[in-house]
Amino acid sequence: MKFLADKYDIVVVGAGHAGCEAGLASARMGFKTLILSISLDSIAMMACNPSIGGTGKGHLVREIDALGGEMGLNIDKTLIQSKMLNTAKGPAVHSLRAQADKTKYHIEMKKTIEKQKNLDLFQGEVVEIVVENNVVAGVVTRTGATYEAKAVILATGVYLKSKIFIGEVNFDSGPNGMFPSQFLSDNLKKLGCNLRRFKTGTPARIDRDSVDFTKMEEQQGDEEIVPFSFLNENICIDQMPCWLTRTTLETKKIIEENIGRSALYRGDMDSVGPRYCPSIEDKIVRFADKETHQLFIEPEGVNTKEMYLQGMSSSLPEEIQISMMRTVTGLEKVKIMRPAYAIEYDCIDPLQLKLSLEVKKVEGLFSAGQFNGSSGYEEAAAQGLIAGINAGLKIRGEEPLILDRSEAYIGVLIDDLVTKGTNEPYRMMTSRAEYRLVLRQDNADLRLTEKGEKIGLVSPERFQRVKTKEKRIKEEIERLKKTSVSPAKANDALERANSSKIGGGITLYELLKRPEINYKNIEEIDFSRPKEILRDIVKQCEIVIKYEGYIEKQLRQIKQFKKLEKKKIPDEIYYSKISGLRLEARQKLEEIRPLSIGQASRISGVSPADISVLLVFLEQRRRRKED
Amino acid sequence: MYEEGTIAAIATAQGEAGIGIIRISGEKALEIATKIFRSEREKNFNNADPRKMYYGNIINPESNKIVDEVLVVYMKAPFTYTKEDVVEINCHGGIVPIRRILELILRHGARAAEPGEFTKRAFLNGRIDLSQAEAVMDLVSAKTEKGFDIAMSQLEGTLSKEIKSMKGEVVDILAHIEVSIDFAEEDIDKIALNYLKNKCESIETKLKHLIKTAETGKIIKEGIKTVIVGRPNVGKSSLMNALLKENRAIVTEVPGTTRDAIEEQLIVRGFLLKIVDTAGIRETENIVEKIGIERTKELFNKADLVIFMIDSSKKMSSDDIQIIELIKNRKSLVIINKTDLEPKIDYSMVKELLGEKRIIKTSLKEDNGVEKIEEYIVDMIYKGEVKNKDDLVLTNVRHKNALERALTSIGEALESINKEMALDFIEVDIRIVWECLGEITGETIREDVIDHIFSNFCVGK
What are A41-97's pLDDT values in tens digits? Predict the structure, then answer.
């Protein structure tokens, strides 16, 4: 029996990392919002690794924060170790990663949602999306509760018809012992959504007391913690270590002997898994000449003995998992608390989405996260935030927020998914961003706070602070350009910094271009330096000055890129009628319906020749219109 | 760029030949052929089997008169060169029947194809890639056998192959860089700057080599601008005739761009020589005096090759000496002719004046020394650098331009390596190299690197 339970502006299906951001954004924009979740105990559950951030992913978290999202704030509250990765490389690829206390992460996020005005939380499984004349009208839960809504956001994660595989054993289940969602898939198919099956996996959790850490290498966090959120200045906690160990030849042997019993190799699964996250059996098969593989052992939280065995995700039978793990250095007597498993689930082909993350076929239906074919908490959160924002903007009758590839990693992420599609769970990497020297994690606030403020997720005060920061940076660079030092005054200091002496006067700006020179070691010769200069401003100045040539090169590339992005393709074009286009290109263009020539050029199956045909067509069309 | 409609053109070379081919491409190709072709075997050509030769006559449907006896073949889209419907008519050679048939076709619904338009369609319809298309364009306009060979080999994708292999190397470098950035904590061997440096230098060398061949390519395509100077009766006309006699000739006179310039073209061992005669210098006793030293210099500057002829049976004039001065430091060939006559020339003085310069002694009257001249010219073209005759030669400006940008960027990448910059900075320029190479083959490229990472490195959690 269906019954009308309530009316909302926006209903979010799922309360994982995407659902939480979507619900919070929508509520904070002033919309009456409901988040429905199969279990309220799985809000912001970290079903796999106990960490947030990493290369590329850390950038996403900082961008989410700059736009007014929650992930950065939540990990800052709950982290137990923090590390800036890639510090030996350039600032563009420095990436923040923090180990989280999983339980605390869930509790803190739940608290935030509960406290949020305009936001309701309800435990229920959505089984139907109500659509009238191709426009979304609400959702129905398993218990018959109907919620009317102006927009619905799907953030179903890996729950749709999910199935778990452990060796020869498999059963219907959501992640981590949760219920799967068994009905929504069929309803979505009826609505015209093309679903497919992806898989992912997670390693075992082991008992801390059964691990011999003396045989492992301790991995400490950074001494000074850089917070994820631009709103936080300092975080002082006692950090917990992670541990590094390796598999042995014996491990390899056991896997090779039992490879036939792995669910992945038995042929039980016809879904596609991610290449960057191969199971241990995959690694052994594909890189057969490698004798050992490294493993990280990471704490799952402060109040638990469970530890995560990074590098050993598997779908081997439980008993083989145990014997395999016991061949790893330091795990000779290991006790497993949760076995590794592979999980298979339904998700949408993201080519069916607009850049706003609205489903093309159903107006007002948005989607985000693993349902869109991505993988990872951060990728999910980023999409959730954008879906939440755009659902809100749609109700307001405003243009959607679309970040382009030169503005944010979030833009790269969504454009990749929606334009190129993906054949495996999509993970963010810095190499996916063409303009990464500009898209740094350290300047996400300068890039995006203004957009967050316009939408209403960032307070005017916060935006004002960013504007002031921007101004200070400019002023400081100007000052450094104008301030010269003489050899007599500078050479002693330069010598101490192991830098070559100068023959004539030189500006501090020029001096700072030298790799060995930084703000600190020219302090004594910089007489006009402002008394109180923020660390953050110094950092921005150093980056801008030191890498000026490279950054300028990238800015020129961005200019070129923008030219094609600005060439808009009108809505009413019928690609099937453009005779010069190859058949494949016609079909792809018709399916994706790109907004610009730039977007069209990134569609796989559309060649540069097709693009020139398209350009000619648009030009002819324009001339005809002028006549 | 892409004009709709059915196009037609004469596909064989202009001039008297045994057979002429007219090609029609586009939606209406078959319809037009049906209107003007009558065959005993198939009354209605609309029902013709594709890829079969039909014997019959071209008829002018208005007058019902036979225009020519022909063989016609219909090729159905998309299995044709242009991926459109194509009809080819083989008729008798000779300018009259060919032109008449073409006119008939144009009257019945086709328009005359622009030069290279068939190829343009083949490209736009996705039949061939950009570098192949450009090769066909070169082929169409190739004036000489040599140019033809190069265009042919490019058509087969020699350039694509070379560029692709170079691109493969670049992808490999990029994947190494990216994997050490994005998978910083994996146990993958750190990329050594020295390794990077070697790789980049090897690519730099290859790029330089390819670009160098561009100059040769230009000469092959456009011909060698040659000036022949020397006193009247020294044998300039004989030289022209001797070169002509030995080789296939195209002699056309085209009005030059400079004042009174006349250009004659002749082919020497497959290479096009353009003999420039400005202001009738060949008839002048004393060119330096006649046109002035500055203009003589300018004239020589514009030439790829100056051939200076000296009469061995006469003493050298002051003009001869002045010319020797002017050609000392440029690509030039000195021919001492009339060795059959009693020498009056002071050879030691000539040698002293010319230094290392190559001198060829000839008696053109006795057909002596022409071989050597030809050899010298061919040598000069290859400059001793392009040793293999079948070596890939770059003939396209767009390619050259893209390669030059790639070269600049690989240089900048090497500079970053030398400055020991972090990998992500080095990557910026290497990525540009990669994009430039992709521009030549006209491919989209970005996913390459990521695929490469996953197939070659063991990464993951």
Answer: 999 999 999 999 999 999 999 999 999 999 999 999 999 999 999 998 999 999 999
Q: Which CATH superfamily is domain A3-200+345-455 in?
A: FAD/NAD(P)-binding domain (3.50.50.60)
| Side chain identity, residue A359 | V
Block residue for tokens 């648009």: A618
B393-414 pLDDT, tens digit each:
555 666 777 888 899 999 999 9
Query: At A548, which amino acid appears?
Result: E
CB nearest A56 (choices: B182, B443, B446): B182
Q: Judge: domain B7-127, CATH 3.40.250.10.
A: no
What's the CA gap between A147 and A166, in Å, rounded?
A: 37
**Class of domain A205-342 (CATH, top level):** mainly beta
Is CATH 1.10.10.1800 what the domain over A460-549 is classified as, yes or no?
yes
DSSP type of residue A181: B
Cα A139 from Cα B112, distance rounded (Å): 62
pLDDT digits (tens, 9 = 90+) for A477-513: 999 999 999 998 889 888 888 888 888 889 999 999 9
The residue ranges of every structural domain in chain A are: 3-200+345-455, 205-342, 460-549, 567-626
Q: Which residues neighbour B386 within 8 Å (Cβ) at sequence distance 6 or greater? A: B213, B216, B393
Tokens of B277: 């005669």
Taking an 8 Å cut-off on Cβ atoms, the answer to whether B460 and A311 are in contact is: yes
Tell me if chain B has a CB within 8 Å of the CB of A555.
no
Q: Are strands A3-13 and A51-53 parallel, antiparallel or unpaired?
A: unpaired
What's the CATH class of domain B221-382?
alpha beta
CATH node for A567-626: 1.10.150.570
Nearest to residue A280, comparing CAs of A243, A242, A215, A328? A328
ipTM above 0.90, yes or no: no
pLDDT confidence of residue B99: 77
Q: Residues A547, A90: contact at Cβ < 8 Å?
A: yes
Q: What is the DSSP string of B118-129?
A: HHHHHHHTTSS-
CATH 1.20.120.430 segments of chain B? 155-216+395-456
- Chain segment B158-177, per-residue pLDDT in tens: 677 788 889 889 988 998 88
- End-to-end CA, chain A: 61
* CA–CA dist B215, A408 (Å, integer): 44
**A·B CB contacts under 8 A:** 123
> What confidence category does residue B383 fall into, taking pLDDT thresholds of 50, 70 and 90?
low
- Under 8 Å CB-to-CB from B106, ≥6 apart: which residues? B8, B112
Q: Is the peptide bond before B78 cis (omega within 30 degrees of 0)?
A: yes
- Report the CATH architecture of B155-216+395-456: Up-down Bundle (1.20)
Joined together, the tokens standing for residue A526 give 């910089």
- Answer yes or no: is pLDDT of A16 > 60: yes
Please give the DSSP secondary-structure letter assigned to residue A370: G
pTM above 0.90, yes or no: no
Q: What stretch of H or E contains A474?
A: helix A460-482
Q: Which of A311, A429, A615 sits opposite B182 (nearest CB)?
A: A429
Distance, CA of A604 to CA of B300 (rounded, Å): 53
Shortest distance between the Cα of B449 and any Cα of chain A, in A, equals 9
H-type helices in B37-129, by residue range?
Answer: 95-107, 117-124
Q: Cα-atom radius of gyration of chain A, to the nearest Å?
A: 26
From A161's Cα to the closest Cα of chain B, the distance in A is: 25
| Token pair listed for B269 | 């061992």
Which residue, chain included where needed, has tokens 């992913």?
Answer: A57
- Cβ distance A350 to A380 under 8 Å? no
Of A311, A436, A606, which is closest to B424 when you measure between CB atoms? A436
- Of A441-450, A507-516, B403-412, B450-459, highest mean pLDDT: A441-450
Give the whole-angstrom CA distance, residue A10 versus residue A365.
10
What tokens appear for A496 in the block? Answer: 């101490």
